[in-house]
C-alpha cells in the first residue's frame, strides 16, 4: 500500500509540473517577443521570474537551460522583427508606425550618443545596449539611420540576446535562492529588475535637474 501511495503521489505531481512547463515556456517566448516589439512589457522581470520557477522544479539545471534558450531566442526574434519593420519604415516614402514607435522611445540626446558610439565601436555596441536599461531602442534607431543591413544587425543582436537572457536569469537565480517559496523569489526578482531598470533614468533626471539648478544660479 505504501508503494501504491507513492506512485499515486508521483502521478499527481508529474502532470502538474509538465503542464506548468507546457504553458510556461510558450508564454515566456511570446511575452519576450511582444515586449521586444512593444516596449511596455518588463521582459527582464519575466525572464527572472521564469528562472525562479525553474530552480524550484525537479530538474533545475535542465529547466534553467530551457528558460535560457527560450528567452534568448525570443529576444533575438523580437529584435530582428522590430528592426525589419523599422527598415521598411526607413525605406518607405511615408515611414511606418513601427519607425515612429522607435523614434518615440529614443530621446534625442541618447540617440546622438548611440550614433557616436556606433560609429566608433560598431556591432559591439549592440551587445552593451541590450544590457543597459532603455539602451536598446536608441542603438537600434542609430543602426536604422546608418542603413545597416538586416544581416549585420542580426550578427550583433544574437550575442546581445544571449548576454541579456543570461543576465536576467542570474538575477532570477539570485532572488530564487534567497527564499524557500517560489512566489517570494519571484517578488524579489521583480523588485531587483525594477530597481535595475529605473535607477539609470532616475540618475539622469537628477543630473539634469542639478545642471539646470547650477545654470539658474549662474544666470542669477
From TrEMBL:
Membrane topology term: Multi-pass membrane protein
Keywords from the UniProt entry: Cell membrane, Membrane, Transmembrane, Transmembrane helix
Subcellular location(s) per record: Cell membrane
Pfam families assigned to the protein according to its UniProt record, in alphabetical order: VTT_dom (PF09335)
Domain (VTT) ranges: 50-172
Keyword Cell division assigned: no
GO CC annotation terms, alphabetical: plasma membrane
Membrane-spanning ranges: 28-55, 62-85, 123-145, 157-179, 185-203
InterPro entries, per database record: DedA-like (IPR032818), VTT_dom (IPR032816)
Family: Belongs to the DedA family.
PANTHER family: INNER MEMBRANE PROTEIN DEDA-RELATED, TRANSMEMBRANE PROTEIN
Protein name: Membrane protein DedA, SNARE-associated domain
Species for this entry: Streptomyces melanosporofaciens
